[in-house]
Design a protein that fits this description.
This protein is α+β, with helices and mostly antiparallel strands. It is built from 12 helices and 15 strands. α5 runs antiparallel to α8 and α9 runs antiparallel to α11.
Length: 366
């Protein structure tokens, strides 16, 4: 039986181009041809297939165990039965290989081989994609939106790879129009029966970290360390920084001249406001810094509650400390890992001239 030399030449070319091993193709083809032969014959035979990739010859053999008494005609034969078929010198316990070349099976074999090759190519491409992206989890990539309909947003990451942007990983209110180029965080890569499933994010703190590394050389070089990041995607974020270099101002370096660096990051995140604060090993100082841009009067730990503080601000700073819908204090609590309760500090008012005059009049009246 022949697969055909043209088919084999094409097969060898494909395996070279796609990096598939001949052994992998051979084992896959042989397994597929065994299955096809069994269906063709309609029995439960033990079958052996061998493919010669030089000549294109395919040999199919049915295996029979030589026994005293046959219980399964598909898999067993007696010594006498083997002699009738022309096989001599066999004994009980031997294995007889009967070469088969049924009519029309050559066509079936060729069709099966083509199907196996197509499937193996798909599997190989999927594995290549998986291997490439599995190592890129946690990285930032530029992608192009190519489908945004029926609540499904798909991102073209390269010529042959698509990523999924789930609803929970999208910035609220951000538009994803086909053709839009933007940056994404590779969140997860999983192998599925339909190929690799690559999930990307626009709201993950890792995306903000990568953008800062891109815009701020001091962060990329390790002079400034990003200790923590919390985000409410598209609305507001807080970044805690530290440095061991006394000559470097972490906040100033991150913001840039005229705010150019932080504005560039903000534009990439749909205008998300980014607060940059100084990390401190003293939790009370860290909490004070985290509530920026509000100015804090004092921070007191709540002694009977673990990781809980009372923060006092002057009345004119109260709304700023709390933030719109509690956003500032909420992000500060997430950034520091402490429960924060904001209170207005009552200011002891100094007496005015009016007060002094009023007291003087009352004294005279007495």
């Amino acid at each position: 039986m022949q697969l055909g030399r043209d088919f084999l030449r094409a097969l060898n070319q494909i395996t070279r181009e796609r990096g598939l091993s001949t052994e992998l193709i051979a084992s896959s083809l042989e397994a597929a041809l065994i299955s096809a032969y069994k269906k063709y014959q309609g029995g439960n035979q033990e079958v052996e297939v061998h493919i010669d990739f030089e000549s294109g010859n395919v040999s199919v053999s049915e295996l029979r165990n030589v026994v005293k008494k046959v219980e399964s005609e598909d898999t067993e034969i007696t010594v006498a039965g083997a002699k009738k078929l022309g096989y001599k010198g066999l004994a009980v316990g031997d294995v007889l290989r009967i070469e088969k070349n049924p009519e029309d099976f050559g066509r079936i074999a060729a069709q099966t081989a083509r199907q196996v090759i197509i499937q193996r190519l798909k599997d190989a491409e999927r594995q290549v994609i998986y291997d490439e992206f599995a190592g890129r989890v946690g990285e930032m990539m530029t992608g192009v939106v190519f489908k945004s309909e029926n609540n499904q947003v798909l991102i073209r990451l390269n010529e042959r790879t698509e990523g999924i942007l789930p609803r929970e990983e999208r910035i609220t209110g951000e538009k994803y129009n086909p053709g839009d180029r933007m940056k994404f965080f590779v969140l997860d890569v999983r192998q599925t029966t339909r190929g690799p499933r690559i999930v990307v994010s626009r709201t993950h703190p890792g995306l903000l970290r990568k953008l800062l590394e891109l815009e701020v050389p001091e962060i990329a070089d390790g002079v400034i360390e990003v200790k923590n990041i919390v985000r409410e995607g598209g609305a507001r974020a807080k970044v805690a920084l530290m440095t061991l270099d006394s000559n470097v101002d972490p906040v100033g370096a991150c913001v840039g001249n005229g705010g150019v660096r932080i504005k560039s990051v903000s534009r990439e995140l749909a205008g998300e406001k980014v607060d940059v604060v100084i990390w401190n090993g003293d939790p009370l100082l860290y909490i004070r810094n985290s509530l920026s841009p509000a100015r804090v009067a004092k921070v007191e730990p709540v002694l009977d509650q673990e990781r809980s503080v009372q923060v006092y601000v002057y009345p004119d700073q109260l709304s700023l400390a709390i933030g719109k819908a509690g956003q500032n204090v909420r992000l500060s609590a997430r950034l520091t890992g402490w429960k924060i309760d904001i209170n207005a500090l009552e200011v002891e008012r100094m007496p005015t001239l009016s007060d002094i005059f009023h007291d003087f009049v009352e004294e005279k009246a007495e």
